[in-house]
Structures are given as C-alpha cells and as structure tokens.
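Fold this complex.
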Amino acid sequence: MTIVEQARYELARYNTRRHFLRQCTAGLGSMALGSLLGCDSPTPQATSTSTASILTQTSHFAPRAKRVIFLHMAGAPSQLELFDYKPELQKLNGQACPPSFLEGKRFAFLQGVPQMLGPQSTFRPHGGSGAMISNYFTHLPEVADELTFLKAMHTDEFNHAPAQLLMHTGSPRLGRPSMGAWTVYGLGSENQDLPGFVVLVSGGDPSAGKSVWGSGFLPTVHQGVQCRSKGEPVLYIDNPKDINQAMRKRSIDAINEINRQEYETVGDPEILSRIAQYELAFRMQASVPEVMDINDEPAWVHELYGTEPGQESFANNCLLARRLVEKGVRFVQLYDRRWDTHGVGANNGVDTALRQACQAVDRPIAALIKDLKQRGLLDETLVVWGGEFGRTPMMETRASGADFKGRDHHSEAFTMWMAGGGVKAGFTFGETDELGYYGIRDRVHVHDLQATILHQLGFDHEKLTYTFQGREFRLTDVHGRVVKDILA
Amino acid sequence: MRLSAEQIRDQALAVSGLLSDAMYGPSVRPPQPASLGKWEVSTGEDRYRRALYTFWHRTNPYPSMISFDSPGRNLCVSRRIRTNTPLQALTLLNDTVYIEAAYALAKQLQNKPYPSTKAQLTDGYRQVMLREPDADKLRAIEELYSDALAHYQTNPANGIRQTIAHQSSADAELKALTLVANVLLNMDEFITKN
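Structure:
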C-alpha cells in the first residue's frame, strides 16, 4: 500500500471507530493522518488535548445558562411546611381523610384512613414578589425575589430510588445517563483541568446510589465525579507514600514516553487519548485539591455560608459549588440526605426534624445565591432546588399507630424552585388544590423540568440524543415539553 | 482494544505473581478507599483473588471496575464501550492493588541476581509484557530508574509520607524499582490487546 492509500485506509478505519471515539477531537484523526503522511510528529500541545474540553456537539441555539447547580434534597422535603401554603388544610387538621383522596390510590406507607395534618410552620409573604415562605427558613426569604417557584410539580414514582432516577436520568429504571452526563456530553467543560460534572454529597448517598450521577450508556468520561470535602477529594488522587509529586510527574512522563513510542509502532489513536488522560490526571492532582480547599476563602465568606472546614457539610458543598462553577465546571450537583420526614419516631416529623433540616441548608443556599449574584455569575448559572417527590397532606400512619407528625411520600404535587440562568426572578408558576393534594393549574412533570433545563443550556431536548440498543435515546426519552412561561 | 476491567486487575496480579488461583466460594473484598463506607477487606490470599470474585454492591460498586467500564449489573449490556478517562489513569497509578502488584514485582526483581541494571529492567519488562522491550522503551525505563534511584538516595525521608523502613541503599533501590514497576503496569501496551 502506498502511503496515501494507507492514510485513506486509516481514515476509513478511524471513521468506523467514531462511535468509540466520540470523546476524541477530529484533530486526533488528522494527527494520525499527519504522521502517516510523514508530517511532523504531534506537538506537545496537540497531544495534550484533554477529553474534558472536547465538544462532541455544540448547543442547538444560544444558551441562557452556561452551567447548572442542582441542589437535590434527597428524601423529599415537605412542600406543605416550606412553600405551598394551605390554610384550608389547617382547618381540617385532625379530621379523617376524605375517601376521594384514598380510593384507588397507592401510597408508600399509609394504611387505613389517616388524619389530615395541618402545616406545622407559619407562612408569610416575602420580598417584592410576595413569595410565600415558611418560618423554617430565615435566610432564604432574603433572596425570594430571585426565585421562580414551580408549585405543581408532579412525578410518576412514589418511592425514593425510582423517583430519584426519574428526576436525574429520565427513567425510573437503572441504566440511563444522568442529566449532568447529558450536559457534558453535549457541551464539554470550560476547564481543561477539572471534570465537567462534579457531585458533592452530604448526609449519605441518595437511595438510588451513584447511578443518579452515572453516565449510563454514554462514554464514562461524562460521568459525575464525586468530590469529597473530607478525606481524599477524588478517589485515587493521592499518590502512595514514597511517590511525591515530582516522582509522580516523572513516572507519568515515562509512561507517556513509552506510549508515544508504542503509538509510532501501532498507530492506535486511543493511545494519544490515553496520553492526554494521564496528563489530565496529573493536572487534576493539583487542580482538584486546590479547588476543594476552602481554607483560602476570606472569613466573611465562611461566615456567609456557615461552613465547617474539614467536615462533610452541606454548607461546605455550597461554597465548593460556587468555586467549581467559577473554574468552569459545567454541572455541579449537591445531594443532601435528611429530608424523609415520615414521623416514624419522635424526631422524624415535619415539625422538629424538618425544621432542623431547614436550618442546615437555609443559610448556605441563601449565601450561594447572593454570592453568585454579587460575582455576576447568577445570570448564567441555573440553580435548581427540590426533592424527588412531595409529601402527603395526610399524616402518616403506620401499623404501629404512632402519632408523630410525619407525612408520607406524595407523587402528585410538590414544589421546586429555580434561580438564575434565564428564568424569571420573583415568579410563581402552578397551583395545587386547597389541600395541596393535586396540581390544578400549570402542572409540570419531571420530564418537563428536564426539557426546560436543557433548553436553558441551549439544547432542544428532542435533539440531544445518543444511539443505543438500536434506537435514539434522550434524557426526556419520549416525553417532556419546555415550560416557556417561566423563562425570562 | 483495551482489556476489560476484570482483565486489567487479573493481569496485573498475574504478572506480579500475586494472583490467587483459588476457585469458588463466597465473594471477597479487595481494598478500596475508606470513604466508600463499610467494607471489611479480605485477608491473605483472598485479597488477590480474580476480579470475578469481588463483592458487588450495586448502589456503591467497587470503583475501579466502574472506572474501567464494567457494567453496573442493573441492566444486561451486550457490549461494553471502552472509554479513556483520567479516573482510569488515577486508578491504575494509585489504587492499592496496583501498588501492591508493583511492589511485589519490584521485590522479585531485587531478589534475583542480575549481571546489570539493564538486564534487571529488561527482565522486568519481559515479566510484564512476555516479550523483549524495544531499545527506545528500555532506554526510557533505564532513565526513569536512574532518576528515581537518585531521588530516593538523596531524599530518604519524604516528610510526612515516609514509610517506617530504615533508609538503606537497598530500600532506595526497592522504591525505585517499585516506581518502575508502577510505570510498567500503566503502559498502554500492558492494558491493551493488539
């Protein structure tokens, strides 16, 4: 074969492998061609292309948000004690639940005929927008005018794991890529030294486990990378004893040198990608601990968020979220697990336990929004808050007959809010009935929320797809419509 | 084609002589980072069983398997996509099992008599790849070894990261060989089938 024929052959081979090489730039293919045609060997810049910065697709239209911070309250906070003010429910407190609410319905735990449970908190309007927020939050009302509330969210699942999977991957079954994975698949990352999708957890992994930030059938380079504020920030980022940073660099240089020679012999473009990955891994060893180290923040910032340096805490994670988006991380997800207030014990109800949960997140969330705003980041950062479903207007009763003020899982109505990233500020969309059981106006399904988030990132959710098992898949699968009413 | 997740682990253990060929029996728990939660690490031979025997926790799986594209076992997967990520690099460089394999390999090299360092390092490559190294690759390995040896001889204490051992020249040699073995187990050709 002549050298030109060989180059054409390699190009054809490269194209059939495109499916596996979605994470490589076209530049790598032309580099392979280049060296076959006897051009100069790849420059150090060329081989250092980091997968994280490679765009596989550009957005479909101009985005309003460049990045997303998703605050997921795992366990499902009770909307009736936080944002969905129902004075009628208070009037029915202690009365038996009407049969129409029970007939033909399935509940996670409720048995028999439960009593109605009035809101345990008190509400008043806040800000110029008059948003109804309960007294469980003392800091959040300060940023009420930044928020768009979705009061008639609904979902199909009433248990944690399937509902979380539906919220984050678009399907209640395991195996699909998460919202963050779709986002970095579509947009890549602005920072060459950090993963494009970072996950921060407090209070324990959500029920659905690590699949909620997984990459499903997308290439694993798009998965969420969990960063920890206690211990190793990313798994395996610390070198073993006896290998310090200089020796680690030296060893990576040796690996890449050997790999480069292997590439000269074998010509596999994956080798070039692997060289880039090792270089990125080395840069991450510096960049990740640096971005995860909140000790260099001034005291007033720590005060604003209420951080606990050295510990795992939601407040730390909020500050970290701001730091990560400042450095160009595309999708940051916070999971906080403490919201499942069934009332199975004295300290598990929507009175004390929920109030304490709010205290843990109130200041940091308000701080995050204020901080993003004063740094000029809020406009292009979409902040989303919510759980995986809501809670019932009825008090939970279990076989034990216990009488603690808890609520069961409720898929028909719950509240989420969004801020920044091109959504309206100081706005409420959707309404539930007078007891907070059903959405009666402007209902938004989980898939609609996903379509809207992708829309703000510049994607038509029907067109951001990936071929798997013989068909095109997308985050919203065959559902979802963008909620245009809440867009500014 | 890159080896699968299970093959990479087994291959590293096999070439370093650590792999246990015990079959059957309950699943075992090789070491994983403590931050992943409760995980009682198996002792003795069970630490080095084939990847097949690793206990599989579906909501919190053994991380290096997932990094190397092992399916999560929630769905039937007819074909694994082979990806290339920095997390894989970090795993192969720093995961305990690969460091232990590198150390075992280094100890073997140290304990055998060789006419020269060149012969020693050639044998190291040969044990890992089952073929002779190219001259250029061998040179890269030799340069690494001599840089590492110089480093460990002049920096016996790595500050807080120091191991307990006495700082004899044999230890500097062992550390340098371990670093070389770490590099050998990270080579693309080691984890790829050509």
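The mean pLDDT of chain A is 87.
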